[in-house]
Write a structure and sequence with these properties.
This protein is an all-alpha fold. It is 64% helix and 0% strand.
């Protein structure tokens, strides 16, 4: 017997790159298109299917009475609609059912879906069969009647519980109806039945899982208090600015004029010591108490920074605007305001802000590093590399500029230059776990697994409290040794060291899904407060 081919598609969205925390890029997809864009060919047999015993005239599925032919439709052969079914021999019923199904296939190929559905209905009346229900479901899918798609595919699966095409169609219908948990169950089952050999099904499963996570994250964000993300996330953002390493020690030497100034200096000291929650509290109190002219712009800048890290772009922009009113020549504030525009998807405003910053100070290395990140994200790799090189010509101690230059060179195909840049960075920044993490990811991409493992082990020795080496090792174990249990254990270890690390939860969910641990994969992460990664982490 033959059934109707399935068609689907998915696409990538540019902002998905903002959710990248490792070299593994997870795409954000769109809903499966159940309706083909063009007329499909006449249904033909594409796979041998062993018909189960349930698929007989005595099956438990519920036969559906024949739908009357549409008034404006074609005339059907009268012999396909016998008045007395009970008098027919089972073989005659089977023959007529197949004939009705074949004629239905003809109408389907002509996109006459209502007529095709009527004939499939008659085939079901004559002799219930999983293929007939699935074919009628395909008609309903093209008519956008997804509830009926679910009903018919369910009947098909009663007759043949391992009927992949019916299960896949029902999954697509569930997704269209926003019954995502049901869709996830079906897509996951299809993955197992296909032994994870069909990339389209795996993409669909990943898409639905990400959408479930997205919807749960939105619900969680609406119901919970805005808070800071993980320490690793904050550290990556703070250390991507020279304000942290160069300016804070100088600012702490200033003589405070008000109680607010003292509180702000306390906040800066906490940032230096990586006590970010205390830093945010002290900064909020500093602004409330009032700041002198020399500290006012900085106070709004720091408070806006913490608002941005919490995911409150509106509050961040309001504070950055106030900071610019106090000091319109502060390049750090202009760069951060550009980050807010990027977060909102306003690339034009972000570029304008970088241009304004360059007019203020064309020799600021932070400006070129962060503009390089924007160019990287928009696939201007040559421009990104130029900006990273400019930043390093102004300050070669910027560890992230060294790293990102090496990554850009690698993506441009300049493998030799990339390796040299990484090697120099490893020598220059011997205590930086980030250099090891990034270089390790490049080595994994090249299939140099043993060398990559050495890099991740070194990163762990340098900072055992960072979740990133554990996540990278998990991906390595999976790609190198196909060790799912080991990878899952490493992701859980990453969560133990940083319970707010969103990346670890995403990787863990994907691994659990492939292990058929669906309920575990559905569980929302405790740390879903990270709407996007800072420019440093995003540009991969």
């Amino acid at each position: 017997m033959s059934d109707i081919p399935e068609t689907s598609f998915w696409t990538r969205h540019w902002k998905s790159i903002l959710a990248i925390g490792t070299a593994t890029i997870v795409a954000t997809g769109i809903v499966v298109a159940l309706r083909p864009k063009s007329s499909p060919p006449p249904p033909k047999k594409t796979q041998k299917r062993v018909k189960p015993k349930a698929a007989t005239a005595t099956a438990t599925a519920t036969p559906t009475p024949a739908s009357p032919p549409p008034a404006d439709g074609p005339k059907y052969p009268p012999h396909l609609f016998p008045e007395d079914l009970t008098s027919l021999h089972p073989e005659d019923r089977a023959r007529l059912a197949k004939e009705a199904k074949d004629l239905g296939n003809t109408f389907y190929s002509k996109r006459m879906y209502a007529d095709a559905a009527a004939l499939y209905s008659q085939a079901i009346v004559l002799r219930p069969d999983a293929v007939y229900f699935s074919n009628r479901a395909a008609c309903y899918a093209n008519l956008n009647d997804y509830e009926k798609v679910v009903e018919d595919c369910t009947e098909a699966l009663k007759l043949d519980p391992k009927y992949v095409k019916a299960m896949n169609r029902r999954a697509g219908a569930y997704e269209a109806l926003n019954r995502l948990n049901d869709a996830l169950n079906d897509f996951t089952s299809v993955c197992f039945l296909e032994e994870f050999k069909n990339q389209n099904t795996m993409d669909a499963t990943d898409r639905v899982l990400k959408e479930i996570g997205k919807q749960k994250s939105v619900a969680i964000m609406k119901s919970k208090q805005i808070r800071l993300p993980s320490e690793a996330f904050i550290l990556a953002y703070m250390d991507s600015f020279r304000q942290t390493s160069v300016h804070i020690p100088i600012l702490l030497q200033f003589e405070p004029e008000t109680e607010g100034d003292k509180k702000l200096q306390n906040s800066l000291a906490h940032i230096r010591d990586r006590q970010y929650s205390l830093a945010a509290e002290e900064c909020e109190e500093a602004v409330r108490l009032g700041l002198s002219k020399q500290f006012a712009g900085l106070g709004y800048n720091i408070r806006g920074t913490f608002s941005f890290l919490k995911g409150d772009a509106s509050a961040a922009l309001e504070d950055f605007n106030k900071a610019v009113e106090v000091d319109e020549h502060n390049v750090n504030t202009l760069i951060k305001r550009a980050s807010v525009f990027m977060e909102r998807g306003d690339l034009e405003r972000a570029v304008e802000e970088f241009n304004r910053a360059e007019q203020v100070n064309p020799e600021d290395p932070d400006l070129f590093y962060h503009r390089g990140q924007v160019r990287f994200l928009t696939n201007d790799l040559v421009g990104a590399a130029e900006d990273y090189e400019k930043a390093l010509s102004l300050d070669n101690t910027m560890v992230y500029a060294n790293i990102q230059l090496a990554v850009a060179q690698y993506k441009l195909g300049n493998l030799g230059d990339s390796d040299v840049t990484f090697t120099k960075a490893l020598r220059r920044f011997k205590n930086s776990p980030e250099v090891c993490n990034y270089y390790g990811e490049i080595l994994v991409d090249q299939g140099k697994f043993e060398e990559a493992e050495g890099m991740f082990e070194k990163a762990l020795k340098l900072d055992s409290k960072s979740p990133l080496p554990y996540i990278n090792k998990a991906i390595l174990q999976l790609q190198w040794k196909k060790d799912y249990d080991g990878a899952i254990a490493l992701c859980k270890e990453a969560i133990n060291v940083d319970p707010l690390c969103d990346i670890a939860f995403v990787q863990l969910a994907q691994l659990q899904l492939q292990q058929n641990k669906i309920e575990d994969a559905r569980s929302p992460s405790q740390g879903r407060n990270q709407k996007s990664l800072p420019p440093f982490r995003a540009a991969r």
